[in-house]
Amino acid sequence: MDVQVLRSRVENINTLPTIPGVLKHLSAIIENPKVSLSEISHFVSNDPSLTTKVLKMVNSAVYGFPGRISSVTHAIMLLGLNVVKGLLLGISVFEVMQKAMLGLREHSLGCAVTARLIAQKKGLKEPEEVSVGALLHDIGKVILALEFPAEYESAMNTAQTRGIPIVEAEKTAFPEAHAAVGAWLAQKWRFPRGLVDMIEYHHCPNLSKSASLETAIVHFSDVLVHARGLGFAGDDTVAAVDPAAFELLRFSQDDIKEILRGLEDSIESSEEPWLDT
Fold first, then answer.
1. Spatial CB neighbours of 231, under 8 Å, sequence gap ≥ 6
2. What pLDDT score does 139 carry?
3. Which of 150, 204, 185 is nearest to 195 (CA)?
């Protein structure tokens, strides 16, 4: 299989029988460059299950508005179009994440919480956008595992037996790894370049041209959550932090301890309902 064949199959996500109907409808709406907040609000409000999941997520530790948002319209106005697009996609793929890889949902949510904490610590104006990047950073794994189950299982076995990161093992089975696959989808969904970068370069944040700090945050969150052992993302290795990302973030040991305490507090204070979407 060459790269073009892989990309074509990935971009035809709407034809995958394993993808839930809500995600198929949602991706069609999101790909519309003229879609408005009111259209998205109307779409969500007409689906009681999705409405419940959106309000649960927005009021959870992931976004830091506990118990304050009671309507989808309020959530969408507060978070903005790009964040809501990513949030809806994240919620929609959760149900297939567990089919693709047990524990990936928990890992992704842990990364989203951690990334928001770091973004706030660095004084970013839009910490929720970074949180969305972290929520969706491994979406390529979901698509590869659903579309090519035998090959992806082989890649996970390779990662396990050889003790290597899943991103390296994927390259033994596919012409591109999950980060590129996720970026193809993010481009198809017309996400802003910064969000595409967070997904595409979360293993090599130094390559990001349009969101270097945000991508470094997603990368660092991924490493911290791996080290914490929250969820499962395809391998048991803990990667070293990219030196350029570490230099950009300039965190002390105390800073890192504080971030990890924030993650623990989020999990404990919510009694983990945020894993229950």
1. 103, 104, 105, 106, 107, 108, 109, 110, 225
2. 92
3. 185
